[in-house]
C-alpha cells in the first residue's frame, strides 16, 4: 500500500555502504543494531497498511501499560506517557497523518539524524531538515553524530568507552557525598576528572568536589539508565562489527511554542549547559573527553496548527523515537506539558493550518489514503464474513440431508413399494455424493479465506481491525429446527473449540471503531 515506507536499502558514506533494516522483517543490521519487536511491527504496519492502523498500535500500548509486569513503580513514566497519548487520541490520529511516512520510519529506526546530513543530498535515503513549508510551533528531534563522519555516530568500542566515562562520573557524584577527610584517592581522582569534564559545557556551574550534571538522586537514576543504554549499544554491535560506525542515534525530543528553529538551537554543540537536559550535555562532554567532537542535527518532526496539539505532539514523537532515557534517548522528564499560555497568545493559527494542509499535502493525502484503505479492508472482511455464513449454512443443510432418517425397506410382498425404495436409495447415494462436493467446497473456501486474510492483514492485525470496522450483525450462530413427532428441535451452532467434529466454523465479532479519520 505504501511503498515509500520501505526505506532505502542502503546508503553510502565515503566508500562504506550503510545497511538499514529492510522490509518485511526489519531485522537489525551492523549500522542499526537495536530494533525491538514493537518497532518491527510498527514499521511493517506503516509499510503495508493505512497509517490509521499504525496509530491503533500506539493506542494499544495503553492497555499493555497496565499489565502487572509493566505497571510497576520504576515504569511509572511509561504508564503516564501512554495515558497522555490515549487522552489525546483524536489529536494523535490527525498529527500522525501529518508526518511523511519516510520520516516516521526514520524516527522509529533512529536514523533520522543521519538521513538529513548534507552527505545524503541527492540520494534515495535523503530527508530534509524540515518536511514543512515554514518554521513555527511544533515538536523537534535532536540527534548527535561525530564530526567528519558524514552523519554517523560512535562505533561499538567507542560506546564502551562512553559508558565507562559515564560510570566514572556516577562514582564522582558518590564521592561528592563523602566528607572531604574520608575520601579515598580513587574518590579524589574521580572528582578531579569530573571537574575537568564539567568545564567543556558547564564552566559557569563548576565547583570543586561537586558534579555539575548530577545534583540530586533522581538525576543519578537517569544517568544510570543512560550508562545502561550505552552498554547495550556496545553489546549489540560486538557480535556484528564492533568497528562499524552506527547511523542509529539516540534522540532528544523537545517542543517549541512559537519557533522550532529558535528553541531547538539550544541543543547545538556551540551552546552551553543551562541547567536542563543534563543527560544530553553530559554525553556531549564525555564524547569531548574521548577526544572526539560531537555534531548535532535538528529535525522538525511535527508542525502544529492548533494550541492544544503541542503537548500531545511531543508525547507522540517521544513514543515513535523512544527518546526517554529508560528506552533509547536523552529525555528525562515526561513529555506533554501544559501550554495554556500558548492558546491565549496572539497568533495566525489559520496560517499554520494553511501551511500544513496546502503547501505540504501530507495530511490530506494520508487521511484520504487511510480512508480508502480502511474501506477496502472493511469490504474484504464483510465479504469474508458473508461467505463464511453462507457456506456454514450450506454445510448444515447437507449434514441434515445426509443424516435424515430413512423409511424402512419394503417387504417381499410389497413389490411396488420395493421398487420405490430402490429408487429412493439411489437418490440418497446421489445426496451423499453432493455432500462430499459441498464439503470439498467448504475446504477450498477456507483455504482461500486463509490466503485472503494473509494478503489483507499480513500479520496478527485482526484484533486491530475489530476496533475499526463498522458493526455487523454480531457473532454467527446458526440454528435449524427439525420437527418430529415429539416436537423436539435439534440445534446446530458454530463451535471453534469442538475438535471432535473435525469442522471449524468462523466466529467473528467485529466491533464499532471509535476511530475516525
TrEMBL record:
Keywords associated with the record: Coiled coil
Keyword Coiled coil: yes
Residue ranges the record marks as coiled coil: 367-394
Origin superkingdom: Eukaryota
Compositional bias (Acidic residues): 483-499
Region listing for Disordered, in residue ranges: 479-517
Protein known as: Uncharacterized protein
Organism: Xylaria multiplex
Amino acid at each position: 500500500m505504501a511503498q515509500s515506507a520501505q526505506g532505502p536499502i542502503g546508503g553510502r558514506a565515503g566508500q562504506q555502504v550503510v545497511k538499514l533494516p529492510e522490509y518485511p522483517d526489519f531485522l537489525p543490521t551492523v549500522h542499526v543494531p537495536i530494533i525491538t519487536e514493537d518497532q518491527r511491527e510498527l514499521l511493517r504496519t506503516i509499510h503495508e497498511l493505512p497509517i490509521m492502523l499504525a496509530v491503533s498500535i500506539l493506542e494499544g500500548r495503553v492497555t499493555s501499560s497496565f499489565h502487572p509486569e509493566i505497571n510497576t513503580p520504576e515504569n511509572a513514566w511509561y504508564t503516564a506517557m501512554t495515558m497522555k497519548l490515549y487522552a489525546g487520541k483524536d489529536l494523535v490520529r490527525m498529527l500522525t497523518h501529518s508526518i511523511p511516512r519516510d520520516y516516521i520510519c526514520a524516527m522509529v529506526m533512529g536514523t533520522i539524524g543521519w538521513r538529513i546530513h548534507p552527505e545524503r543530498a541527492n540520494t534515495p535515503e535523503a530527508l530534509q531538515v524540515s518536511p514543512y513549508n515554514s518554521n513555527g510551533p511544533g515538536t523537534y528531534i535532536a540527534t548527535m553524530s561525530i564530526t567528519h563522519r558524514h552523519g554517523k555516530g560512535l562505533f561499538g568500542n567507542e560506546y564502551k568507552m562512553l559508558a565507562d566515562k559515564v560510570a566514572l562520573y556516577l562514582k564522582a557524584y558518590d564521592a561528592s557525598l563523602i566528607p572531604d577527610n574520608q575520601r579515598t584517592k580513587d574518590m579524589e581522582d574521580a572528582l578531579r576528572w569530573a571537574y575537568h569534564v564539567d568545564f567543556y559545557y558547564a564552566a559557569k556551574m563548576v565547583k570543586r568536589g561537586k558534579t555539575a550534571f548530577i545534583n540530586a538522586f533522581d538525576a543519578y537514576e537517569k544517568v544510570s539508565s543512560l550508562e545502561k543504554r550505552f552498554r547495550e549499544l556496545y553489546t549489540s554491535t560486538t557480535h556484528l562489527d564492533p568497528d562499524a560506525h552506527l547511523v542509529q542515534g539516540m534522540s532528544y525530543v523537545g517542543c517549541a511554542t512559537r519557533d522550532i528553529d529558535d528553541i531547538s538551537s539550544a541543543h547545538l554543540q556551540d551552546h552551553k549547559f543551562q541547567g536542563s537536559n543534563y543527560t544530553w550535555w553530559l554525553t556531549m562532554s564525555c564524547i569531548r573527553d574521548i577526544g572526539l567532537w560531537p555534531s548535532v542535527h535538528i529535525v522538525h518532526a511535527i508542525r502544529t496548527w492548533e494550541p492544544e496539539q503541542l503537548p500531545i505532539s511531543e508525547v507522540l514523537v517521544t513514543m515513535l523515537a523512544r527518546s526517554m532515557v529508560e528506552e533509547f534517548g536523552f529525555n528525562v522528564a515526561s513529555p506533554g506539558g501544559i501550554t495554556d499560555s500558548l492558546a491565549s497568545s496572539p497568533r495566525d493559527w489559520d496560517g499554520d493550518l494553511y501551511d500544513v494542509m496546502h503547501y505540504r499535502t501530507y495530511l490530506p493525502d494520508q487521511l484520504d489514503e487511510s480512508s480508502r484503505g480502511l474501506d477496502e479492508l472493511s469490504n474484504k472482511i464483510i465479504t469474508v464474513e458473508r461467505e463464511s455464513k453462507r457456506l456454514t449454512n450450506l454445510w448444515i443443510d447437507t449434514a441434515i440431508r445426509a443424516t435424515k432418517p430413512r423409511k424402512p425397506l419394503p417387504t417381499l410382498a410389497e413389490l411396488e413399494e420395493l421398487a420405490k425404495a430402490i429408487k429412493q436409495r439411489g437418490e440418497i447415494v446421489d445426496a451423499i455424493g453432493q455432500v462430499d462436493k459441498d464439503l470439498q467446497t467448504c475446504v477450498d473456501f477456507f483455504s482461500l479465506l486463509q490466503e485472503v486474510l494473509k494478503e489483507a492483514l499480513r500479520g496478527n492485525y485482526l484484533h486491530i481491525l475489530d476496533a475499526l470496522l463498522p458493526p455487523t450483525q454480531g457473532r454467527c450462530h446458526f440454528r435449524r429446527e427439525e420437527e418430529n413427532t415429539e416436537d423436539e428441535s435439534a440445534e446446530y451452532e458454530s463451535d471453534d473449540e469442538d475438535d471432535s467434529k473435525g469442522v471449524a466454523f468462523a466466529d467473528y465479532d467485529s466491533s464499532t471503531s471509535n476511530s475516525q479519520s
